[in-house]
Design a protein that fits this description.
Oligomer: single chain
Shape: elongated
Order of helices and strands: EHEEHE
Strand order of the largest sheet: 3-2-1-4
Distance between the termini: 18 Å
Structural class: alpha+beta
Number of strands: 4
Largest sheet: 4 strands, mixed
Strand content: 25-35%
Helix content: 10-25%
Length: 75
């Protein structure tokens, strides 16, 4: 697994990261709004700031693209 890549894609200011978030890790006020939901998907900016929370992965990618952003999935 020590493969070297000569050219990695450039990350620009329009890139956002999509990741699954366990609702139990969210503040209480948010958990109260999503009772019965185990996880949500977060859209994060390059600086790590959470920009949005949505109900599913497809919605997160759709939201990013509708705002002229380039979504990248992270684990």
């Amino acid at each position: 697994m020590n493969t070297k890549f000569e050219e990695l894609p450039e990350i620009d200011g329009n890139t956002v990261y999509i990741r699954q978030v366990a609702t139990e890790s969210l503040p209480q006020e948010l958990r109260e709004q999503v009772k019965g939901v185990d996880s949500l998907y977060a859209v994060h900016g390059l600086d790590g700031e959470r920009l949005a929370l949505v109900k599913d992965r497809q919605m997160a990618f759709f939201l990013a693209r509708q705002n002229d952003l380039s979504p990248v999935s992270v684990h």
